[in-house]
Amino acid sequence: MLITCAAYQNGRKLADIAVSEIRAYTARPDCFVWVALKDPEAQELLDLQKEFGLHDLAVEDAMRGHQRPKIEEYGDSIFAVLHMLEPSGHEVHVGEVNIFSGPHYVVSVRRGAEHGLSEVRARSEREPDLLRFGSGYVLYALMDAVVDRYFPVIDALEADLEQIEEQIFGNQAGRANIEALYALKQRLGVVKHAVAPLMEGVGKLFGGRTPPLCTHLQDYFRDVSDHLARLNGTIEGLRDTVTTALSVNLSLINIQEAEVVKRLASYAALVAVPTLIAGIYGMNFRHMPELDWIYGYPVTLGVMAAIDLYLFRLFRKAKWL
């Protein structure tokens, strides 16, 4: 589905145009066409390929979708694949945006993502001094917007981790926390897969041999790279914390189980002493000490109570009870 198709020249929007008018505008000097598509049909991409001369391999990747984040150069054009992350309850929904950027065009193809990129177009049109750099600036603006959306996702994951940690240290260590931590680790993996490959790709757009399309924009792409480095560092820190939290949770479970075992052992000892004495005096032998003694019964009970009281105080001192 075609969202928008507009022509720009010297940082100013000329008009919304039809696909059939694209060639007339791209032939103008310092003019480029910005096309936005959402879940397009294959024929729509093929039509735009004819208009802009898009590379076959890039178009093939855009048609298939589910690509690894990357940035590739095809002659004087750049093809970028970015994952769009959207929090959905306790899940992270992954969409995709493919960006074709050349000297006279920008084509963004969005798949599987509900939240669009209309604010990028509005932002760019409010900054004509930067938009005059052409399609290279639009490429930066789209990448910057997608990367900035990763920060709220990371913030949500940090909040979830803090909540789980409170449960762990609030005497609620158990299976539910382990399941929650593994689910959190899986979501961190999703974000990691969106960020890490993109770091390598963005590094190609500034410093060293900069693509002609990105000339005069190295500082802006370096800023995107800095954001990705911050995100990657935060992700690594969270993954380490999750691993530590898993170990702590398992240790606390073992400690709780040990406490239960100690209590059971203590109560078993308290019951065992009277049982032993009662078992001895319950044997049916004719001749037994104190068998006919008038104080035998209360003395035996007293001995049982005294021994149990001594053991009880001993266990309490050792904090078994």
Largest sheet: 7 strands, mixed
Distance N terminus to C terminus? 70 Å
Percent helix range = 55-70%
Q: Overall mean pLDDT score?
A: 86
CATH architecture of the domain at 1-131: 2-Layer Sandwich
**Superfamily at the CATH H level of the domain at 1-131?**
CorA soluble domain-like
Number of strands: 7
Walk me through this protein's architecture.
- It is a single chain.
- The chain is an alpha+beta fold and 321 residues long.
- Among the domains are: 1-131, CorA soluble domain-like (Beta Polymerase, domain 2, 2-Layer Sandwich); 257-317, Magnesium transport protein CorA, transmembrane region (Methane Monooxygenase Hydroxylase, Chain G, domain 1, Up-down Bundle).
- 57% of the residues lie in helices and 18% in strands.
- It has 10 helices and 7 strands.
- The longest helix is centred in the C-terminal third of the chain and has 64 residues, at 218-281.
Would you summarize the structure shown here?
The chain has helices at residues 22-26, 42-52, 56-64, 118-125, 128-131, 135-148, 150-168, 175-202, 218-281, 296-317, and strands at residues 2-9, 12-16, 31-38, 70-74, 77-88, 91-102, 105-111.
Secondary-structure map:
Layout: E1 2-9, E2 12-16, H1 22-26, E3 31-38, H2 42-52, H3 56-64, E4 70-74, E5 77-88, E6 91-102, E7 105-111, H4 118-125, H5 128-131, H6 135-148, H7 150-168, H8 175-202, H9 218-281, H10 296-317
Helix pairs in contact: 2-3, 4-6, 6-9, 7-8, 7-9, 8-9, 9-10
